[in-house]
Structure formats: C-alpha cells, structure tokens
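Sorry, explain these tokens?

***
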Amino acid sequence: MALVLDKAPEMPMIEKDVIYCKDCSYMDELPVDSIDLIISGPPYWTFIDYTAFNRGDDYLWRQDHPYEAFLDDLGRWHRECFRVLRPGRYCIVNLATMAKGSKAYPIPFHAVGILEKIGFSFCFEIVWHKVSGGRTRARNFIQRPYPGNFTPNVRTEYLLVFRKKPSKPFTKNLGRFGEKRYRVEVDDYFVRETANNVWHVPPPYKGNNPDHPCPFPLEVPSRLIQLFSLPGETVLDPFMGIGTTARAAKALGRHFIGYETEEKFIQKALESLERPIRHRPQIMCEYVKYRKPKVNG
C-alpha cells in the first residue's frame, strides 16, 4: 500500500519565499486552505510603536490604541489566518500578558476565546521562559519589601497552539509506512527540554539586534517548524518583522510567506536571509529529584 498524506485539493499556484509589505488583515494573495503552518507573533499592543522605532523616536507606549480595539485586531488578523490555513494544520500564536500602570491585561487568555470563536480548536500552551530577558517589575518591592506590594519580574510569554479542524493528525500514516525521513530527532535535549511545555530560550542580545526592538530568537520558530510541518511545506508568518521565521524555514527545508507593514524590517529580513545561521548553545535546565532523607534508628 502506498503512503497517503492528507493533501490539500488542487489550487492555484502561490508565490513562495516572499514577504509582502502590507497588513495581514487582507492576505488576498493566498487562496483558501493554502498554508501548512502559521507562526503568528502579533504586536505587543501599545507597548511598542514600531513605526516610531524605525524613525528613531521614543517607541515605548503608544497612546492611541484602546485595549478593546487591539482585541478586535486579533480577531481580524486571525480570521484571515483561519481562512488560508489547511484543515488539520496548526497556528501558533505568541502573546504575553501586559501591565500598564496598576492594571494588568491578560491578552493570551482573552485571545483563546477570540480564536475559538473564529473556529480554531485550542490544543495546548507552551510557556516560553526567557531566562535572562523580560520586563523588570519587582524593583519597587525590593526597595519596599512589604506584603501586598509585590509584582514579579516578567520572564515568560505564551505560545498558544491552535488547530483548524479536523482534529486528526495530518501525519497519521507516516509511522505506519516507515517514513523515517519525516521523523523529528528525539535526543536527550529533546526529552529534557523540548518535550516539556516550558521552553527555556533567552531572547537575542539587544546589542546585536539594533534593527528591531524585540526580535524573535531563532530557536523558537525552528522548534515549531520541526514539530508542526513537513519538509517542503509552506510556513506563514503574518508579522514577519526582520525575518526570523523565514530564516528558520529556509534552513529547515520549508518555504515561507510573510506579511510586514514596515519596509525597513522587510529590507533587514531580506538581508538576513543571505547570512549563514549561527546557532547559540542550547540551554538545558537541571531538575533534581527530591529524595526523602533516611532517618537513622
């Protein structure tokens, strides 16, 4: 019996390995059910003004975008993602909670309901632990260490994994027919780090990344691409930035399609695709199993 994959129906050819300079709300270049994997990293609400960053101005805390409007944006962007994603395939959304003044905004938790209403099925979350990066918020408590005055430093973001129905695995026949070329390497590092729902990946060192205020570490899209797509397939990043997802896709034998509204970011992305990838040493946390002490006598 021949190997049968869950293939999409015949459709018009789409241009691949391209980044469009436009808003991802209208991805009319892409037909319905044409994308194999989506890695979505929406803007940090009002925390960063990317246009101001490219002008060289103060880019923290835009003042003109209410929270409810941002949630509407999340719905509009991901309705288009749902349209172009193939059935049974995955959309991973990178989001973080935000705090402004004394108020906290649980963006990832609101996003789950928004995407489920669109039609996505929520599968699970991966907590991205930034190890050495993030937002410092505990300084006030350290200076005035009294109960009720505590706010922790923020060292995590969420990778929310959604699937477009049907829910059956799109690679269900691969193991049965011995297609070892599609297997993900399961080594000691995978078992002790990647297999868990907490990933320890530091952000890129800012001194080496003057082209973007919050660049994605290459390790994150690289893991997601290997875990949720096959070689030769097409990965969409609707918020491409300076091209980290595109670099990871190219290195792993996948095609990429991106959308980005900032021309300067696109130019940097195209330049980065010509540079060799240098992987950083992987971080593996050590977990010590508790053993009940022996009691003499």
Notes: Residues 201 and 219 are 7 Å apart (CA to CA). The chain has one domain: 18-272. Strands lie at 18-20, 35-40, 85-95, 98-100, 103-105, 120-129, 156-164, 198-200, 234-237, 255-259. The helical segments are 50-55, 67-84, 107-118, 139-143, 188-194, 219-228, 244-251, 263-272.
